[in-house]
Protein 1
Amino acid sequence: MARTKSAKVYEGRRPLIAGNWKMNLTHLEAIGLVQKVAFGLKEPELEAAEVVVVPPFTAIRSVQTLVQGDKIEIGFGGQDLSTADSGAYTGEVSGAQLKALACTYVVVGHSERRAMHAETDEVVAAKVRKALEHELVPILCVGEGLEVRKAGEHVPYTTAQVDAALEGLDAATVAGVVVAYEPVWAIGTGEVATPEDAQEVCGAIRSRLAERFGPETADVVRILYGGSVKAGNTAGILAGPDVDGALVGGASLDADEFVSICRSAAESR
Ligand SMILES: O=C[C@H](O)COP(=O)(O)O
């Protein structure tokens, strides 16, 4: 099993694979999955690529206990956070609560939150700020629906979402954000974007970050692709020079498949 090692300085952008479990798995099933993933990956692979799981809130504590107790070199985070810190917000979870569970990351603005919970660009921007305030790394999700894609407006649409979410932040702060390009038409559909599609938009996002925050900042921000990522398509997608990893949904629930995805990422740089 891969164990925690001393900090290492990485040159360039270290590939990041984040498994978003969405509303799947009990806390007991979560433990089993993390154990299998940890046993499946070797230490050099976990050094070459950063591996993160994003369980439902109900399983975070169990994942934390396992990861810290067994010194497993796998990170974890939350799937959402509130724009508030505490109070009468039934069902919400705060950044402080996630931080207290040792979360490193939090997904913000996932298309399922935007669509099912009416999260606007303003709400997403507020959540990015709240995550940063609590020293959580936001994984900012952007991406177009099928109509926008068919109209050929996917690049301006997604870069505008990035603009809105990062409005008012300074370059040093933006350097600590992860962006995930997830075309909505490719999420959970089996309809994966081509490597060229992924690179086109990830490259455009990086160019936009360079315009707004400077090339040094744009150069360090990790930009992920998400949408029907599987072991068989990871290498092709990560071959794009601006694609630094993947936000994986369904395939992250299968230990063997997720291990293979992480291995591809480790071999990608
Ligand atoms: O957060 C993950 C994305 O929504 C991708 O999900 P998927 O890999 O099941 O298409």
Note: The chain has 13 helices and eight strands.
Protein 2
Amino acid sequence: MVKLESRILDIDYQGVVLNIEDARKIGVLDGDRVQIVRGDKGLFVQAFVVTTKTILPPGIFGIYHKTNERLNSKDGDTFEVRHADRPGSINFIKKKMDNEKLNAEEMKAIVTDIVDDILSPGEISAFIAASYINGLDMDEIEYLTRSMVQTGESLDFSSHPIADKHSIGGVPGNKITLLIVPIIAAGGLKIPKTSSRAITGAGGTADLMEALAPVEFSSTEVARMTEKAGGVIVWGGATNIAPADDKIILYEYPFKIDARGQMLASVMAKKIAVGADLVVIDIPVGNEAKVTTPEEGRKLAREFIELGDRFGIRVECALTYGESPVGHCIGVNLEVREALSVLEGSDFPHSLIQKSLTLAGIVFEMAGKAQSGKGFEMAEEILKSGKALSKMKEIIAVQGGNSDVKSGDLKTGEFSFEVNAPEDGYVIDMKNKALISIARMAGAPHDKGAGIYLHKKRGQRIEKGEPIYTIYAEREWRLEKAIQEARQLMPVLVEGMLIDRVPSDYWRPPMKQ
Ligand SMILES: O=P(O)(O)OC[C@H]1O[C@H](OP(=O)(O)O)[C@H](O)[C@@H]1O
Ligand SMILES: Nc1ccnc(=O)[nH]1
């Protein structure tokens, strides 16, 4: 054990930086962990070690921002720093890698160490990869969900029922939450909606809402705002509601994967923690969606319902069309513009309106606000009368955004490229993953003006030379990358169109002797 003086490193990362001489004295190497002890406050914080020869002299150690959130130190404080044992959770991750089943304590240990920033990014990735490859059974998913709830805060509302909705994602352009939340809140139900940022897509609901208002709030603020406006749309990652969730999603995002067990737990932990009584879950089904067949969708729906049952939440699932994008817009500002235009009274795009009203209608029926079969009408009346728009403005205002915003205020990036139809014909295929990939190349979701506008959808007729879709970007180099990606992936197929041309020198028959 050595005594070291602290230096706060204002970098949003976890762990500590030790001079190599101090690290040797303590007996740790890069990648090991130390325990930082502050006797006067009874604090014992574990942290991941990085060493330096030059940046910090012996006697001084650096504390990254995330670790300091726990230590609450300032420059010049003195701590005892000693070797910490390898966390037991690593053995449990290894167990999952070996395809063995984890029990409740083992799962809790993994989740606690993720939340406490004790596991390294590599170790968390290994847990996700092992679960992705070997799967989690219903008991393990229950343990994971419970641990995710218990390692965070829960909301407590003065009155019930609390309604909620969630989409498993996987279909581009799925901006329905921006319509459903104000409709449900305007219908008199409380809906404290927490969303993730993009996981496999080009814009998660938290990314979209951020174009209208701040989305980072504490749990107490989420509860207060919901009591006031009836609903909110916030980023779950900023609250302390199921904090493990976004720490896991962070490592799923680069792979564009959503491990099934993690997905069920991620969605349901948030619903349990906000105190939801009834939840509707959107399961998009399509060739390139997270769920590819209706059978698989029904199986997942049963799993959501069973998981809800284990925690006393009533869950209904809607299998929805996930073969092509929802609406015509993909990417943050484009999607928000499309959603706002519907709230403002546009009856286009029909599919977006239909899907949003159907899901909101299910919630009204589940809550007994509408008779069976009448939920859709109730949702439609709220949308058409402008009550949903007023409620959305209230939600934007309560979250600190500009409630005078109009759909036309949401701007696309200044660089754009139109892809035209090479032939007359019908649009016969739209590849979701390729569209997402192009939108991400163009800068989505980080650059809010980046994305894709689809002029035509699957099944529509198009004439040669007419635009099929336009790519938007905020930076020229990003647009160029997106165009290259589009040339390679060909996300939209028009019948009769040449898919590829293979030159004659691609293959030569052997020469005759
Ligand atoms: O990026 P992919 O995997 O498509 O989906 C992620 C999105 O799906 C869910 O949507 P919602 O919060 O129910 O609207 C998540 O919260 C997130 O915003
Ligand atoms: N894994 C997830 C899928 C969709 N939404 C979430 O919040 N989490």
Note: The chain has 18 helices and 18 strands.
